[in-house]
Inverse folding.
């Protein structure tokens, strides 16, 4: 059943939260409203009490609601991070608000060290999660029932979304916007805010060139590092299985277990990531980019772009390359 608009998003903040953890995602959600005839989102900034509070930068923001006054059944809860995270983890009103509102909410998310607050509220138990790279080991140590993945940009596990530090909160917001309003809206908002790299959607929760480091201790880690370095080669399952010194059946089963993807889907995602970087960061022709990314032909690359991003490579380049790039 389609959820009625506007979707209510509540951003939980606190004294000495990181200002970009809050304003980055909120700005992107607000921009969606500018693109629609009627608002797609209703935004609430909540703190211990309504009124002004100081962020870690010294700037003050104004909370429109107290934790205890969140309207019933919000669509999405997001918890910010920042220097004040440790104190916020001890705020009984904040934890109570999360405990009360998380079950009926459609999604619950965190930015940066906000993952610690979700974990303290019991929302990351038996979940995959990420946080700022500098805090990932600490999150894993204090919350051993959470599977911490330190190299992920953002992770979606069920209704729980977590993201890495600061600007990764904007990647997370774009993913939520994409889930709500589709690829075209996410691309429009990214372009408007000069966010050149769109992260893969659906199951692809990592920027592909970071994906090998997400599984550093797995049997396939060397192969996952090798794939992006040889992306223009023939990377069919027979080739990959032979390089891993396994039968194709064993390799396919292990690959799915360790990465969550089929070999073909993973390779296609890495090739898509490579092509996007070449489209926005080089002056190569579409034909050359298709070859260097391993697609082989412009038509095959175009079909992959349409399937994943609902846009052609040419249109993607026009939207996302900087004004100073030469053709």
């Amino acid at each position: 059943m389609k959820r009625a608009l506007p979707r209510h998003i509540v951003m939980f903040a606190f004294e000495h939260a990181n200002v970009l953890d809050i304003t980055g995602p909120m700005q992107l959600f607000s921009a969606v409203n500018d693109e629609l005839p009627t608002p797609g989102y209703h935004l609430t900034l909540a703190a211990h009490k309504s009124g002004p509070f100081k962020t870690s930068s010294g700037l003050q923001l104004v909370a429109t609601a107290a934790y205890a006054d969140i309207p019933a059944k919000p669509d999405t809860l997001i918890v910010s991070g920042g220097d004040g995270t440790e104190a916020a983890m001890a705020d009984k009103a904040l934890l109570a608000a999360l405990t009360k509102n998380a079950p009926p909410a459609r999604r619950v998310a965190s930015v940066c060290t906000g993952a610690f607050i979700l974990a303290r509220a019991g929302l990351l138990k038996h979940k995959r999660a990420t946080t700022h790279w500098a805090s990932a080991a600490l999150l894993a140590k204090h919350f051993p029932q959470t599977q911490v993945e330190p190299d992920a940009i953002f992770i979606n596990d069920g209704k729980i979304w977590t993201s890495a530090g600061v600007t990764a909160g904007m990647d997370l917001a774009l993913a939520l916007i994409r889930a709500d309003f589709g690829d075209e809206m996410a691309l429009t908002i990214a372009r408007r805010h000069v966010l050149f790299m769109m992260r893969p959607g659906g199951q692809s929760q990592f920027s592909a060139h970071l994906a090998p480091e997400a599984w550093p201790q797995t049997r396939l880690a060397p192969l996952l590092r090798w794939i992006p370095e040889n992306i223009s080669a023939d990377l069919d399952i027979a080739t990959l299985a032979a390089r891993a010194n396994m039968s194709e059946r064993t390799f396919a089963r292990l690959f799915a277990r360790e990465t969550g993807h089929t070999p073909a889907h993973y390779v296609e995602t890495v090739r898509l990531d490579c092509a996007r970087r070449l489209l926005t960061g080089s002056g190569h022709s579409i034909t050359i980019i298709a070859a260097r990314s391993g697609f082989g032909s412009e038509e095959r690359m175009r079909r992959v772009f349409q399937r994943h991003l609902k846009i052609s490579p040419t249109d993607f380049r026009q939207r996302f390359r900087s004004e100073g790039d030469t053709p």
Notes: The longest strand covers residues 41-47. Residues 196-215, 322-327 have pLDDT under 50 and may be disordered.
